């Protein structure tokens, strides 16, 4: 590269960078622009007068940073001389913004992702100190009204192949090169050093990137200390395609609307392998050769074009229409609230042009553009389309991995975690409350709801029917039901979890055979919201490696069947016994029982129990299976945070709640060293909670006046194993067994391994003396499940959840996940 060629290329890259920076500032509000100017100061300086100051030796200073007028005034107002820093080189190389910023997808509410690029020679402890300071700066910016995210990124991060976990911004088992691809095609320089990659032609990058960069640094006129390099994206292995795709699917499960185009882009890249030319390389080639810059260089528009071209090529019309809809909605969101300007007019013209190109009618555009036209049915249909697209991409990645001989990647720990995240999101089973994605959930609130329980003799499906209109509205006759639940509590849980029912919603109730009214529904919805959704539910990667355990439960008493209405209960009755067995008639004042639970995989479930005595005892037996209640010291338990009892009785509600809570605490007290049994009454029967000395588990036994206590009937939870299977396995295996999940437990024998295989119905098979490689066995099992998930069978979605694998400790009591990768 001669000097003239260098200067020409550098001029074009710099002009392109300035153009992107100018567009980004144009879209940002004045407040966000000022925050963007503050960020370099907070990182460049470490001064007591500036937010983010640290005494612990945090690295600071950005190469080639010169304060602008706003920044100089900010420093001078705080008694700092802007020109006092005379050093030439600093540990922070540069700040680069990336993502949607400066693209047509950027709106005034868009977050700002900034990479804090640092030297590879920065020690790890200093890197961690800087990352901690950046987290503070992000919080500080949010307090000022700007959503700024700072990511400390070492210059050798993509060359070394280091990575984090799937639930972070790193790429799990991927080598992260596709994150680098996104960075190169969407970033612009805020301040600091220049990146070498933009100066290397695509031909040279494909030929021998490392040697070309080495020659670049040797140029006589070049100041090497003004440049740094993240590496090439030209040659990626199949494992990187698969790993990056897996990570995108993982992120897309929670935010499918946001991640849809990126996931299909990975699918498109994989379909072109091994002749893939990444979008960043195409963009670089175009920037170097172009005279002017326009829509054809917009990162989000290029992403849409690449994805739509791929879907058109494979003839996937359904996903092509979905991608168009997501693209249009993203542009619509981006122009929301923007002041009138030439840039805004350009975006509106683009939206009109693409709508015309797609043959969209004005009525369809109006329906799509107006939030008023959104209803529960259309939102649920849209969610299902997003889900189907996600699963298609997942299957395409599985096919790609098999085709290119990287089946071992499917069996990595990350793949198992991903499969369970998908499973927890899409699997439907009785009692599970399906939750909407956060991106569309905000549109689901209804002004008016009618909740109707048809009479027993009607031809309608049994259960509670939810209609989004008033009960006295003639439109009810033509309105489609949006949800049907077998029980009222499950219905209210779904309405609350999906933010359909809020404090502003007007509720009508029609049910002749139930004690439910709108006041009870509002009260239950408020209790559910406070108990489960006061904080954001976050599922970590470690949670998905373990068994699916209940985190917290709400016991709902006498909601649908309030038995206190049926008895005339005097004070003398209540003084004799308690509300579980009161008066000479030994009445149990608990009627209907429902339990709403949240588990470690983020699933919300609702199960109902029999009315009265049978349901109470079965509830108590089920509570004893909850890990959240059995792994911590009983005397230190804060029951209200884990288990909340709510009584909705018209009479004696607080007393019923208190008595049930006392019984639960008494049973849990059996786990303590000083109390091994607890006796209580429910209706006419006496029960005893007793510790099993061999397993240290607690069992509930019903006493009989005709037999010795050792022969009394043991009460088992319906969610555990049946006795004929429970007797074949260690108590720890029985306790960890989970309905709906295939699990393998390895137990060490004198020679080889004993394997307990627990299927989705908690049935057990046992294999003895396994001497082969456990990793190879896990690989072969997962290959079978992967092949099943890739079939066209309608039932194949169940197999998206790969089995779980565990190893028992030598004491047969402790259990930990079996992992393949060494981390």
UniProtKB/TrEMBL annotation:
Pfam families: Adenyl_cycl_N (PF12633), Adenylate_cycl (PF01295)
GO molecular function: adenylate cyclase activity
GO terms for biological process, alphabetical: cAMP biosynthetic process
Ranges where the Adenylate cyclase class-I N-terminal domain occurs: 11-198
Classification via InterPro entries: Adenylate_cyclase_1, Adenylate_cyclase_1_N
Name of the protein this chain belongs to: Adenylate cyclase
Annotated source species: Succinivibrio dextrinosolvens
